[in-house]
Every structure is written in structure tokens, then in C-alpha cells.
Amino acid sequence: MIFEITTQVRVSSITEGQKWYEILLNKKPDFIPHEGFAEWELIPGCWLQVAEGPLTDGNGPIRLGVTNIETERKRLVEELKIDSFEIHSRPEVPVKWGTFTDPWGNRLGLFEYLDKREEQERIKTIIKTIEP
Fold first, then answer.
1. What pLDDT is stored for residue 3 in this prediction?
2. b/e per residue, 113-129, with b = 16+ CB within 10 A?
3. 3-state SS string over the chain?
4. CATH, range 5-130
5. pLDDT digit string (tens) for 14-73?
6. What φ, ψ does residue 25 adopt, rounded to 5°?
7. Taking the model in full, what pTM does it have?
8. Beta-sheet strand order (sheet of 62-65)
9. Tell me, what's the pLDDT at 130?
10. What is the structure's pLDDT at 1?
């Protein structure tokens, strides 16, 4: 049974990497177990690890769900100085999405549900899992 997920990206400097991901995620790390490593719990049971170490090619993208992809793209371009990225959609796909990279070459992305009722149902389901 799978009940939790962790994914990791590598950065050449944990100081710069942690700062960059704090802005991306709009929060400080939830857990820093040792030097060169920081973790964020994105939603219950879903962790993003940022580790200082050799960079890897071809990973990702890790896509983060947002309620307004255009607003988030604008914020990331302004605050993180990333290149603006194209937002894609296809008739058979229920989301629109875009991909960008962090300064270390890790592929990241955002997605937004096209059907706002479905989006609200997903949010309710996720929130229900974190309420006691």
C-alpha cells in the first residue's frame, strides 16, 4: 500500500536553493533534518526535498496545482526572475499547465483545473484529509 510520496530536487547551494524554494512555495521548510537538506510538506503526505549535491539531468517536471496559473506565473516571473513560460491546454486534458526550471535545471511546473467545480471538489477532498 502506498500512503505517502516524497520527491527530491538537487541544488548546488542549499542556501540559495532553500531561499528560492521558500519563495516558490510561499513558506519556510517544514523539516530540516541536517545540513544541506530541507523538506516541505506540500499537502498531507506529499513532501518535496531540496538537497545540496550533484545536479541531475532529465528529472521532472514536478507540477504543483494552483487555482490561477496566470497569477502564479506572474508572481514567479517577478519574484524569482524566471523566464516567462507558455501555458498549454488540450481539449482532452482537464487542466492547463506550464513548465519552467529552477536555477539548477530541475524541471517544475504548475497546473490549474479548467472545471472550477472539479477544482473545488479536489480542494475539499484534500482539506478533509487534514482536518482532525
1. 66
2. beeeeebeeeeeeeeee
3. CCCCEEEEEEECCHHHHHHHHHHHHCCCCCECCCCCEEEEEEECCEEEEEEECCCCCCCCCEEEECCCHHHHHHHHHHHHCCCCCCCECCCCCCEEEEEEECCCCCEEEEEEECCHHHHHHHHHHHHHHHCC
4. 3.10.180.10
5. 999 999 999 999 999 999 999 999 999 998 889 999 999 998 887 778 999 999 999 999
6. -90, -5
7. 0.81
8. 62-65, 107-113, 95-101
9. 63
10. 44
Give the span between the Cα atoms of 114 and 96, in whole angstroms: 7
Per the listing, cell 477544482 goes with 119
User: Which residue matches cell numbers 484534500?
Assistant: 126
Reference 110, options 130, 91, 82, 131; nearest CA is: 82
Q: In 3D, which of 22, 33, 23, 95 has the Cα closest to residue 65?
A: 95
Q: How far is CA 42 from the centre of its chain?
A: 8
Grid cell at residue 73: 506565473
Task: Please compute, for residue 5, the number of CA atoms within 13 A of its CA located in the half-sphere on the CB side.
Answer: 5
d(CA 25, CA 64): 9
pLDDT of 45 reads: 81
